[in-house]
Design a protein that fits this description.
Layout (H helix, E strand, L loop, with lengths): L2 H13 L3 H4 L5 E6 L4 H6 L11 E4 L16 E6 H7 L3 H19 L4 H6 L3
Parallel strand pairs: 1-3
Antiparallel strand pairs: 2-3
C-alpha cells in the first residue's frame, strides 16, 4: 500500500469515530510518519533494533488537565506507516490495525493507560 492510500485509510478511520469522541479532538493533530526515530524508541525504553511502534500519543491527557490548562500547543497522535505495513500483509489487515492504533492512542488522550485500553480490545 502506497503512502497516499495509507493516508486515506487514516482519514477514513478518523471519519468513523463516534461524533462524541471526535468533537473532543479539536486540539489534537494527527500526523503520519514513516518510522519512529531510534532516539524516540530509546527514550521509551525500547531497543530500536528489536522494537517499534505503530502509534504514539504525545500531550497532556484530558484527565490530567486542570482548570488553568490552556494556551498549549496541540497534542499529537503519530501513526507510523512503515511498521504497520511490515506487520500487516493485506489492505484489510492494514485498515484494521490503523483503526485499532488510532483508537488506542485516542484512549491515551482521554487519560487511559495501556492496560485499560487493552481490556477494551485496543
Amino acid at each position: 500500500m502506497d503512502r497516499a492510500i495509507f493516508d486515506t485509510v487514516v482519514d477514513e478511520a478518523l471519519a468513523e469515530l463516534p461524533a462524541v469522541f471526535a468533537r473532543q479532538l479539536d486540539n489534537v493533530t494527527i500526523v503520519i510518519e514513516d518510522e519512529p526515530a531510534p532516539e524516540l524508541l530509546r527514550s521509551l525504553g525500547m531497543d530500536p533494533r528489536r522494537h517499534t511502534l505503530f502509534g504514539l500519543y504525545q500531550g497532556v491527557p484530558l484527565s490530567a488537565r486542570g482548570a488553568s490548562f490552556g494556551n498549549a500547543l496541540p497534542d499529537t497522535i503519530s501513526i507510523f506507516y512503515r511498521p504497520i505495513l511490515r506487520a500487516c500483509r493485506t489492505p484489510e489487515r492494514i485498515r484494521h490495525e490503523v483503526r485499532r492504533t488510532l483508537i488506542h492512542e485516542i484512549g491515551h488522550f482521554f487519560g487511559m493507560d495501556d492496560d485499560e485500553i487493552r481490556r477494551l480490545g485496543y
